[in-house]
Write a structure and sequence with these properties.
Helices cover 44% and strands 21% of the residues. It has 503 residues and is of the alpha+beta class. The radius of gyration is 27 Å and the shape is globular.
Amino acid sequence: MAEFDTRRRYQFDQREEIGALGTFRPAQAAILGLAAVVVLATLYVTRNVIGLVIAGVQLVAVGAAVTVPLRGRKLDEWAPIWTNWLLRRRAVEAGYRSRFPTAGIRVVSGEAKDPAACLPVQLRDLDMLEVEYGRGQVGVIRDSAKGTYTALVKVRVGSFGFRDHREQEKQLEAYGLALASASQDGSAIRRIQWIERTLPQGGDELAAYLQRERDEHVPLESDAVRSYIELIEEAAPTAQEHEILLALQADAKSAGREARRYGKGEEGYVKVLLSEVESFAENIGRAGVVPIGILTPRQYARSIRDGFDPWGRETRQRLGVIDPSRADVAPERMGPLADQGAWNHYRSDGAVHIAYWIASWPRIQVHASFLMPLLMQSQAVRAMSVVMAPIPFSVATRRAEYRQTAEDADEVQRTKQGFSSTARVRNRKRAATRKDEELAVGHGEMRFAGYVIASGPTLDRAEEAALTMERSAMRIGLELQRLDGEHDIAVAFGLPLCRGLAK
């Protein structure tokens, strides 16, 4: 007998692209309107067959420009990017240079002190706060320009992809409840970001394991041990470590009244944030996500530095082994020593990065482990980041009710006028009904954006990693939009800073 697939399936809501002007965005409509004026002016001035031909060519050219995509974007979408790039090009291509190498070290009262922090534009207005927590300190990044506070938790997830599908669905259900808790009215969480990234791993860990576990009675010169050593040497260039980071962010507005219980101003905001981090970590623990702990200032700084310079990580780790006081990275040095941008990539220290925006998620229903080909079945060095903004439950409920009512009214009107429902209309109505049902059973609503950063030690290797990511994404129904002209900006969306979403 045939076996039926009993696995639960999940559906992503798609971006609604129909507005008051139909499928045209305001910028497209404005360009077409301007083109129509030019065409009419051409006909009025020439008043002959040649003018008619010129006007026709103009109209066709403009129509093609605003409707035919070029590398995934149309003219009205490319125009602001080109303009912004032309304005920034000189500064971006000149790059950033840290003053640390030439600033020297000051000795004050017999104590060596590093120069003041020097950070690139992606980390401008950021500084690391050292906050007392339990018996130690944790790091909280303050964005003085936006008034936000962000803490970082490192987490560990078991072999999710190898679990029974029922166990996977159970864990996802628990994770959904954790997200729903952040969407409750009065929650202080402004942004949630998770990052799953791969980092180059040298052969040190493998060699240490061999040395620790091998039979000491077998000499190193033996063929068996020598074959293991050769295998480690061959595997070292492709060895990778998977790291999962979870960042949570609060600000004065989201912390609100609750902050007054802990103290005035910044002290209250930070304590509210840490309280929310504890609660969220406890909730995701029920979903099989094991929180390792809130990172210290130096650990937080290292996670940012590793994002800029993955291939310098091994050297920094070895320094920590030699001198524990030098483990991790000083917050003043969490940025690269140098960087340089270009239209099609961004270079920082020993790495080249290419950024993608996830323009569209799968349009068909997917299983719980649909991301596995992208996250686990690739040797590319990359980071996948998803930034979420919780929508308060009361706001989400009102929106869902309005959307459901509007769809019902539209269906009645179509029936009266004798119009048939298209597949797009039916899908839109089902999405509205599904959203209303999800909120009714207690699920939360999130506004989110996803990004993928492919990296390599050289531009050619980075392009290979980017191509690998494109192919893996295509297999699972993700549409990746390469962020040419904005790679230097978008690389920050792959760092644990809760960036990548507008207000």
